[in-house]
Amino acid sequence: MTNQRSRFRVFSDEEWALIEPLLPSNEGRRGHPFGDNRRVVEGIAYRYRTGIPWRDLPREEFGPWQTVWKRHRRYAADGTWDRVLARILAKADAEGKIEWTVSVDATIARAHQHATNTKRPEQDTGGFIELQESSVRGG
To answer: Which of 47, 53, 84, 109 is spaced 20 to 30 A from 126 at the CA atom?
Structure first.
């Protein structure tokens, strides 16, 4: 594949070279051999980039949507996406492309005692309902 990008292509050849070795093959497994991994992974990325439903993936570009969906589910379940992310982050970190600055916010959000939606029958919180309940009970 050339380095030329179309509206359906997400990865450059260099980016694909990082991802491809991390993807599992189905060698030794029963069933149909995996088709073009790049075509399927491009379909997964395209679907998330555009937000379209799986069924609306352009078949001529990515093949059957069911294949793309099944491969995505398989890669999510077996940790493939986690390995890909870890490798890309490690490479970017080694090249100094990630700044690991952590910002801590000390904002305090105070909530009224009635905001918790919990009952405290032993404690009068001063709410109107509690006052009515105690007068009904004879208290």
So the answer is: 109
